[in-house]
Every structure is written in C-alpha cells, then in structure tokens.
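Lay summary. Proteins are chains of building blocks that fold into shapes, and those shapes determine what they do. In this project we predict the shape from the chain. Here is one chain we studied, written as its sequence of building blocks.
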Amino acid sequence: MTGNGGERTAGGAEMDDTSDRGAGGPRCPHCEEPMYKRHCKYVCPHHGVIIDCSDPFR
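And here is the predicted shape, written in a compact code that computers can read:
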C-alpha cells in the first residue's frame, strides 16, 4: 500500500480508481482473473500488464 491509499499490482504498478476494472473485460490467460483497462493496456491484478494496444493479435 502506498502513502496515498492506492494499491499496487504484483508488477509494482499503482492502481487507482480511474481504471475500468472487471465488468466484461478480458480475463488473464494465466490465472483467469478479470483484468482492468489502464490507458492502452489490460492489467492483471496478479501478473501486471498482459495485453498492450500494440499487440498485433488483439
């Protein structure tokens, strides 16, 4: 936990309330947790960034 009340993912990225969590988003291919969208990336709360907008397979 950080000083401003934010949480951190396993990859060390700080999470905040501006992300689009859960609700119909893709699931992590490693653990099946719902990922949340942050800017141009989908982030797993356990594994960090999984899908980037530059991923040609998406």
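What the prediction tells us: The longest strand covers residues 48-52.
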